[in-house]
Design goal:
- A hairpin with a 2-residue loop joins strand 9 and strand 10.
- The chain is of the alpha/beta class.
- The longest helix is centred in the middle third of the chain and has 19 residues.
- The structure holds NADP nicotinamide-adenine-dinucleotide phosphate (NAP).
- The site of NADP nicotinamide-adenine-dinucleotide phosphate (NAP) has 22 residues, from helix 1.
- Belongs to the glucose-6-phosphate dehydrogenase family.
C-alpha cells in the first residue's frame, strides 16, 4: 500500500515534539507501509534536503534509545519531503496538487497541525483544489473551536466537503496504551463488568496534573485555559471510556455511539452546581523542582491581568441506571505538585468488617496514564506481622497491596506510543480511536455553561505553584465524604 502523509505545520512544535518522533518509531518498528512519503508543509523556503537536516538536527537533541542512529535516520529521511505553501493562499494548493499527482498514492493523509484559525480554510481549499477524493483522510488537531458555536461552524465546513469517515479528529489520550487497555479490560474480560456500577463503586476520580507551567506556549494558553485545553477533550474522553456501555461490536460507530450516550447523560449544570461543583484556579509564584518559579501572570506571552484558569476541578455524575448517584470528579491543572495523570475507580467498602484495616483503605482500580502507563488493582491482604498477644491471636489485620501491570516493564521497547498508534490508524483508515463530530459537539455543549458563568464571575482562585490547586478543590470532594488520592 502506498501513502502520502502531508503534514501542514511540518516545522511546528507538535510536528517536532510528537509527530516526527512517532512516525520515526513506526518506521523503526516496521509498521509504516514501505511505499510512503511524508511531506512537511510550512511557509519557510526549504529544499527537501534542508528539511531533512532540520528534522535530523532536532532528532540529534533526543536522548537515549529513541534517538535514531545515523544509518536509521538516513533510511527514514528518504521518506521526508518538503513543500513551501502559505495555507491562506488558494493559489498555493495547486502545487500541492501537482506533488500528490506525481504518484497518486493509495492513501493520502492531510494532517492539519497548524493554528485552529486555519482549519476551515485548509479544508475548503483542499476541496477547491480537487484533493478531497475517496482516498483522502484529514486529521484535525484539537482544539476544534473555542465554544459550541465555533466548533459547529468548523464541523459544518468540514462535513460540507468531506464524508465523516474521512475525518480523523485526534485526541491522543485515546491512543495511550492504558486507555486502550481500559477498553480491553472492560470489554475483553468478564471480571469487572458485574461490579462496574453504582452498587459497587463509591466514586471515580480523574486527575490530569502537570508540574510544568505554560512554558513557551503562554500566548496560546492564555486564549485557551484548562477547561478548553484538557477538560472538553481529554478528560471527557476518559469519562466516556470509563462510563460507556459495552458496544455491540468493535466498529468505530458502535463505540462512538456508546461514548455519545455518556456525554448526553452528564448532569446538566444548574446555578447551584456551577457554584459548588466547579472550581477554577490560577497559579501564583511558588516552588517547582526545588526552585522558585513565577506565577502565571508573569509568564511570557500571558496578559498580566489574565483571568484564564490554569486549574479546574469539577464534580459531576453520569445520570443513567448504571451510574446514578456515583460522584465523578475531574481535576486538571498546570504547576501542580507532580506530573500525574490517572483514573481511580474507588470501590465501596465491605458491608461488614471482620478484619482490622487501615482507615480509608478500600479496593481501587487505578489506570495510570502518566508518567507511566499501567493498571494497578489495590487490594487488602492479610498483613504479615500479626502477633500473638497474651496467648491469643490478635484480630486479623489487613494491609493494602497492589497487583501491578506496568506496560513499560511488560511490553518494553515493543510498546506503541499514542501518536504512533493513531498515525498508523489514520493510514490504515481505522476510526475507532477518533472523535466523531456529534461527540465533540456534545462535549462542548456540556462545558459551555462553565465558559459562560466564568466569563463574568470573580475570576480564578489563586494557588501556589507546586501545590494541588486551590483548597476549594479539596473542600468540594470532602463535602461528599471523600478525598483526592494524595490526601488519603
Ligand atoms: P506552532 O508551533 O505554532 O506551529 C505551526 C506550524 O504551522 C508551523 O510549522 C508554521 O510554520 C505553520 N504555519 C502557520 N501558518 C501557516 C500558513 N499560513 N501556511 C503554512 N504553514 C503555516 O503550533 P503547534 O504547537 O505545532 O500546534 C499546531 C496545532 O496542533 C494547533 O492546532 C495546536 O492547537 C495543536 N496542538 C499542539 C500541541 C503541542 O503540544 N504543540 C498539542 C496538542 C494540539 P511557518 O510559520 O513557518 O509557516
Amino acid at each position: 500500500m502506498s501513502f502520502d502523509l502531508v503534514l501542514f505545520g511540518g516545522t511546528g512544535d507538535l510536528a517536532w515534539r510528537k509527530l516526527m518522533p512517532a512516525l520515526f518509531q513506526a518506521f523503526r518498528h516496521g509498521s509504516l507501509p514501505k511505499d510512503g512519503r511524508i511531506v512537511g508543509v510550512a511557509r519557510d523556503d526549504l529544499s527537501d534536503d534542508q528539511y531533512r537536516e532540520l528534522i535530523q538536527s532536532r532528532f540529534n537533541a533526543v536522548e537515549g534509545a529513541k534517538r535514531p542512529s545515523a544509518e536509521e535516520f538516513e533510511k527514514f529521511a528518504s521518506l521526508l519531503h518538503y513543500l513551501r505553501m502559505d495555507l491562506s493562499k488558494p493559489a498555493d494548493y495547486a502545487r500541492l496538487s501537482d506533488l500528490l499527482k506525481q504518484r497518486n498514492a493509495d492513501t493520502v493523509v492531510m494532517y492539519v497541525a497548524t493554528a485552529p484559525a486555519l482549519f476551515t480554510q485548509v479544508v475548503e481549499q483542499i476541496a477547491a483544489a480537487g484533493l478531497n477524493g475517496p482516498s483522502t483522510r484529514v486529521v484535525l488537531e484539537k482544539p476544534l473551536g473555542h465554544d459550541l458555536a465555533s466548533n459547529r461552524a468548523i464541523n459544518a465546513a468540514v462535513c460540507k466537503v468531506l464524508d465523516e469517515k474521512q475525518v480523523f479528529r485526534i485526541d491522543h489520550y485515546l491512543g495511550k496504551p492504558s486507555v486502550q487497555n481500559l477498553f480491553a479490560m472492560r470489554f475483553g474480560n468478564a471480571l469487572f463488568e458485574p461490579i462496574w456500577r453504582r452498587e459497587h463503586i463509591a466514586n471515580i476520580q480523574i486527575t490530569i496534573a502537570e508540574d510544568l507551567g505554560v512554558e513557551k506556549r503562554g500566548a496560546f494558553y492564555d486564549q485557551t485555559g484548562a477547561l478548553r485545553d484538557m477538560v472538553q477533550n481529554h478528560a471527557l474522553q476518559l469519562v466516556c471510556a470509563i462510563g460507556m456501555e459495552p458496544p455491540i461490536n468493535s466498529h468505530a460507530d458502535a463505540i462512538r455511539d456508546e461514548k455519545l450516550k455518556v456525554l448526553r447523560a452528564l448532569k446538566p449544570w444548574t446555578p447551584e452546581t456551577l457554584g459548588l461543583h466547579a472550581i477554577r484556579g490560577q497559579y501564583t509564584a511558588g516552588t517547582a523542582y526545588g526552585e522558585r518559579v513565577p506565577g502565571y501572570k508573569d509568564e511570557p506571552g500571558v496578559d498580566p491581568e489574565s483571568r484564564t484558569e490554569t486549574f479546574v476541578a469539577l464534580r459531576t455524575e453520569i445520570a443513567n441506571w448504571r451510574w446514578a448517584g456515583v460522584p465523578l470528579y475531574i481535576r486538571t491543572g498546570k504547576r501542580l505538585a507532580s506530573r500525574d495523570a490517572r483514573i481511580e475507580v474507588n470501590f465501596r467498602p465491605t458491608p461488614h468488617a471482620i478484619y482490622r484495616a487501615p482507615a480509608g483503605a478500600v479496593n481501587k482500580l487505578v489506570i495510570n496514564l502518566q508518567p507511566r502507563d499501567g493498571l494497578e488493582l489495590h487490594m487488602l491482604a492479610q498483613a504479615q506481622d500479626n502477633r500473638r498477644s497474651n496467648g491469643h491471636q490478635s484480630a486479623a489485620q489487613l494491609a493494602p497491596v497492589q497487583l501491578d501491570l506496568d506496560f513499560d516493564k511488560r511490553f518494553g521497547a515493543e510498546r506503541v506510543g499514542a501518536y504512533e498508534r493513531l498515525l498508523l490508524d489514520v493510514i490504515d483508515g481505522r476510526l475507532n480511536l477518533f472523535v466523531r463530530s456529534d461527540e465533540q459537539e456534545e462535549a462542548w455543549r456540556w462545558v459551555e455553561p462553565l465558559i459562560d458563568s466564568w466569563a463574568s464571575d470573580g475570576g480564578p482562585r489563586p494557588y501556589a505553584a507546586g501545590t494541588w490547586g486551590p483548597s476549594a478543590s479539596s473542600a468540594m470532594i470532602a463535602r461528599d465524604g471523600f478525598s483526592w488520592s494524595e490526601e488519603q
